[in-house]
Amino acid sequence: MENLENKKDLTNENIVHICKNGIQYLQFRKLLEYKDILTHAYSIGKENFRTNKGKDKPIDDIEYKNSMYNYRKLCDAIGCNFNNLIKPIQRHTNQVKIVEKKINKDKPDINLIQYEDLDGIITSKKDLVLASTNADCILFLFFDPIKKVIANVHSGWRGTSMQISVETIKKMKTLGCMPENIICCIMPSIRKCHFEVKEDVKNIFYNQCRNMKELNEIITKDDKGETWFVDTVKINQILLKKEGLKEENIIDSGICSVCNSDLIHSYRVEKQNFSLATAIISLI
Ligand SMILES: [Zn+2]
Question: What is 15-191+232-283's CATH topology?
Answer without folding.
Answer: CNF1/YfiH-like putative cysteine hydrolases (3.60.140)
